[in-house]
């Protein structure tokens, strides 16, 4: 007797023993069958039932996916909807099935019982943060547990388009009176991206003095650069007696979401500052090609 989806029952022609052979992959209990037997005079018996059961094989499978109308591309501030599905892939009913995902809201659901083939589903949302955008990916892990199975997890990575950084442009204040402090509004020619705004309180100098939070940079023998903590303006104050042009410095600024800009250079020059330029060239009538023994004439 063949039962589709379960297996085959056979009777031994000599002994009368009945055997059930399950189909490959069948993990349930087969439908009971009935049999009869006759005596030596050919009188048949009443029908009797044969039942075979198997030890339970509890099992869960866990899947996680983006669901619904999620944005494409995923960017900073995007709201993502995730569906986490636990399926009873065994042959016994599971109890106290808990599906969880700490990243989404809501982050957990408990199903009191899940029959074989049935599911327990968690649907939640997550908003992409600046940290996700900078990392260019959202990575989160879902888990499932039950009274009958061991805990298991699944991980899903969602690519995120990195935020566009603000653009900082070089700044210069030229031909200032010797010995005077010079202040530059360095943000005047800088720009944020994607409708954001620059945060002037985030202006910091590269290689600033230790402990100054990027707001002070002292160059020995020249003077001190400072950043106004409120406006972001940068001031160079020369040391007493310094009569040259200070070494240019670099700064960065961040937008209102904390995304830093490129480095921009600030240059200050003074009137009457001593300056030298140096060039060195080969003079005319030098041999071509230059070989061993050639006499070369240089002009510096």
Automatic annotation (TrEMBL):
Pfam families: CshA_repeat, DUF7507. It comes from the Bacteria. This is DUF11 domain-containing protein. Residues 144-159 have a biased composition (Polar residues). It comes from Thiocapsa imhoffii. The lineage of its organism: Bacteria, Pseudomonadati, Pseudomonadota, Gammaproteobacteria, Chromatiales. Residues 1-46, 164-262 form the CshA domain. Residues 57-150 form the DUF7507 domain. InterPro entries: CshA_fibril, DUF11_rpt, DUF7507. Residues 144-176 are annotated as: Disordered.
């Amino acid at each position: 007797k063949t039962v589709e989806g379960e297996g085959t029952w056979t009777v031994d022609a000599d002994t009368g023993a009945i055997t059930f052979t399950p189909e490959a992959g069948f993990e349930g209990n087969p439908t009971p069958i009935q049999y009869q037997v006759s005596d030596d005079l050919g009188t048949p018996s009443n029908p009797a039932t044969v039942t075979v059961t198997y030890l339970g094989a509890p099992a869960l499978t866990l899947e996680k996916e983006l669901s619904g109308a999620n944005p494409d591309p995923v960017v900073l501030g995007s709201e993502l909807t995730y569906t986490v599905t636990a399926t009873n892939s065994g042959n016994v009913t599971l109890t106290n099935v808990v599906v969880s995902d700490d990243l989404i809201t809501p982050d957990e659901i408990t199903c009191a019982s899940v029959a074989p083939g049935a599911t327990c589903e968690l649907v939640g949302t997550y908003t992409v943060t600046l940290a996700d955008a900078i990392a260019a990916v959202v990575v989160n892990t879902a888990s499932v547990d039950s009274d009958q199975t061991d805990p298991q997890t699944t991980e899903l990575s969602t690519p995120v388009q990195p935020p566009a950084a603000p653009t900082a442009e070089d700044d210069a204040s030229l031909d200032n009176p010797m010995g005077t402090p010079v202040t530059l509004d360095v943000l005047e020619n800088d720009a944020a991206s994607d409708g954001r705004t620059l945060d002037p309180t985030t202006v910091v100098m590269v290689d600033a003095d230790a402990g100054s939070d990027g707001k002070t940079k002292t160059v020995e023998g020249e003077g001190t650069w400072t950043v106004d903590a409120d406006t972001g303006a940068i001031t160079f104050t020369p040391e007493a007696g310094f009569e040259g042009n200070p070494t240019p410095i670099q700064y960065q600024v961040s937008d209102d979401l904390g995304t830093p800009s490129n480095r921009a250079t600030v240059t200050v020059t003074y009137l009457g500052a001593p300056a030298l330029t140096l060039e060195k060239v080969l003079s005319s009538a030098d041999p071509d090609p230059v070989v061993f023994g050639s006499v070369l004439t240089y002009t510096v």
